[in-house]
Amino acid sequence: MKKFLLTFFIPLFLFKISFTQNGTSEPKNPEKGRILPSVNINTLEGSTFNTGKISNNGKPIIISFWATWCSPCKKELNTLAEVYDDWKEKTGVKLIAISIDDSRNMGKVAPYVNGQGWDFEVYIDPNSNFKRALNVINVPHTFLLNGQKEIVWEHNSYSPGDEDILFGLIQKMANSENHSPKETPVEGKN
Amino acid sequence: MKIIHRKKPRWKVKINFAINFIFQSLKNIFVFPVLYFILVIMGGVFPKWKGFGSAVYCQSIEQTLRQGEIHGNLQMDAQYYNPDSAIGAPPVPEKILMNGFSNINYTNQNFSAGIRYESYLNALQGFPSGYRGSGFPYRYASFTNKNLTVTAGNYYEQFGSGLIFRSYEERGLGYDNAMDGLRIFYRPYSGIYMKGLIGKMRKYFTYGEGILRGTDIEINVNELFSHEESGQEQTLVNNSSDSSSISQSINPVITGKENKIKFIFGGSAISKYEKDQNSTYNLPENVAAFAGRANLIYNGFSLFSEYAYKMNDPYPYQSGSVYDYNYKPGQAFLTQASYSKPGFGISLSAKRTDNMDFRTDRNAKSVPPELLINYMPPLTRQHTYNLLATLYPYASQSKGEMAFQGELIYKLKKETFLGGKRGANILINVSMVNNIDTIHLNDMDTTRIGYRSDFFKIGRDTYFKDFNIEFSKKITDKLKMILTYANLAFNIDVIQGKVNKGMIYSDVGILEIQYKISKKHSIRSEIQNLITKKDQGDWATGILEYSYSPNWFLAVMDQYNYGNKDSNKRIHYYFFSLGYTLETTRFIINYGKQRAGIFCVGGVCRNVPASNGISLTILSSF
Prior knowledge:
Number of strands of chain B: 32
Structural class of chain A: alpha+beta
CATH architecture of chain A: 3-Layer(aba) Sandwich
Oligomer: heterodimer
Largest sheet of chain B: 24 strands, antiparallel, barrel
Structural class of chain B: mainly beta
Number of helices of chain A: 5
Distance between the termini of chain A: 72 Å
Number of strands of chain A: 8
CATH superfamily of chain A: Glutaredoxin
Largest sheet of chain A: 8 strands, mixed
Largest interface: A-B, 82 and 113 residues
Shape of chain B: globular
Radius of gyration of chain A: 21 Å
Radius of gyration of chain B: 28 Å
């Protein structure tokens, strides 16, 4: 019986070893991040949109969670809206804002987005499915994805100046991923 | 044209897919473990074979495991309480209270599973006292295969705008009505989305008695007829001749960019089973509710409407009231229209609800709300400034209300009188909530319908009115300013259940200034003043906040009830806050007195209960 039990537990033990070994023996891509979960959210028009479709042709992506009732979120996105054209041109980055407004405020999101003249993609996550899948606790919460759509950096809260740190990371990423000589590294924002 | 490209009829592909799916699942669930156990037993019988089973099995699943990921989050709020009779903070026998939770999720390609540990030792003041002790009230496993997703265990879900069903969480408020059961999401054809579910609803660490069964179907007409894809299989459809419209439809999404009518409609049904244990009344054991919705979009215009009907579903209420075990069916109607173009946005919404209290347990408490099946969105602005958000916030009245709201956003152009050099933004919001007009039937001894109500007639009693205007402007590159004025009318008897206090009229003025000292250093200040002759009288709030990007912030706040008629209650509510953020981990220490409501400090908004003391918050996601 003892033997039998031993043979039963050894595989579990081995299984654990093989798992840990695999976890540590892959230093090839140390920056490998987490894969973006596939969850159904809404477009501003109310159509269903699957987050697995978020893409930017191998360029970095910023995903920022916000709400119409969250003033630091709006400050962050208004700041990003001002610099977005410049960032896009320099790094090819794409900005996606995810509103966690529920049916109380959902109808106000599109007028707000257009009223502010935000020229980036905005989706609504009315029952917090995407927020939950990404373990977001509070808004604002911002993610940076590399060209392979892996989350390589995230930050909770917003203070003026945070955008410079974000841009530094995007530039670094764009420079290291960009093999084309056309897009040479550009100077950072002052 | 498109049909020619099809090699097999669609139903055949589906059957093949189904067979394949079942076969693969059976193989994973039964064949591998059985093989493994056979090899283990063989190893037990023949000592030489020992370990062989594990080797084979480990090899086969090694590949799969490599793709697995574990992520999660945690939050802990601990507070030391000082009794403070002046502000109504009672003595806390435990002195220290703590709320905490941690989610841990495992994902591996199309499979995900997770648990949440929650701990209330004991629950913070202001949280429902039903949260006691610790446990794992949330666990689930979910599997997606192309267009099918199956979830077993706990899940959150919403049908339409939630008028007949919404299961969701507001951790900051201690509200969580997660479902426990099974849910299926299926997309049989491009543009058709179906949901089916069964389960019980969470009540603290247990579940309500009632069982819910529900289904929802949504049809996106444009996707259906043009094979536009916003679902999963973009690459397959991209080859068709319609690719230009596809790229448009999956791309942004900012209303007003397409000159095309879009139409989405949907319907849902939910049924509740609850045993009739009442000796006086013959109560319906199965209660159904239905809802239909439609969404029309054209060139920046959007119109959404939803109507819901709930069959008779009597609940106990004050004895003798027309709402006590009332057999009247419930109705709700919500409509939202909006138009926007760059620099301009307007939205109008209206809502009527009548007898829409809907719970999985007839005896569930309404304060704090328990086991609510549906969600009645309050059609008022969700304010964030402390005095506006915490003193007189509106909450929907499920017995019945008629609400209207309008909001206008306008971007003032540069080089105009108000716009100045850098332009400015104006937001105007108006909302009004009244009761529904009712005529009592005096039938409480016979049919118990209670009252009759004209669908289009607005009642005479005002519950809430809000007119507010917000002007924001960037004065220089470093200096920003937001000026807000609000005029509120608040029926404190109805909304907060007070007696003979009547309407509270108040005027609120707020000035917020933000100055970016240098690249990383900035300061922000708020000056708020609320003037009212009733209730607690006038209030003023001052906030000064310093932040050092991206790690530190320090904030000082004082709320002063300077206009209270009782001079002993003219109290300063001092509050200090220090926070440190390292990417996704945050530590915050607070000291002082504070009121309940949405509280925004240091760049984060959270719902917090009233208190006096010192508190520590740690939150992290990984």
